[in-house]
């Protein structure tokens, strides 16, 4: 998973180069706290093992 300040326009490039997920740091705002990030991690971890392996290129 990539936690980045790069804009979402870079998401497909990062995923193509091996990232399993993309998360833009600007989504971590004071009013929302870590909730969006935690949800993104939970979504990533909930993927079936086969999907994770395919994304990782195994």
Overall body shape:
flat
User: What fraction of the residues are assigned to beta strands by DSSP?
Assistant: 5-15%
What is the alpha-carbon Rg in Å?
Answer: 12 Å
Helix content: 40-55%
Largest β sheet strand count, sense and barrel closure: 2 strands, parallel
What order do the helices and strands follow?
EHEHH
- The span between the termini is 16 Å
Overview of the structural elements:
There is one protein chain. The chain has three helices and two strands. The protein has a two-stranded parallel ribbon. The model has no long low-confidence stretch (mean pLDDT 81). The protein is flat and about 30 Å long. The chain has one domain (2-56). With 58 residues, it is mainly alpha-helical. It has helices at residues 11-16, 35-46, 49-56; strands at 2-4, 22-24. The protein is 45% helix and 10% strand.
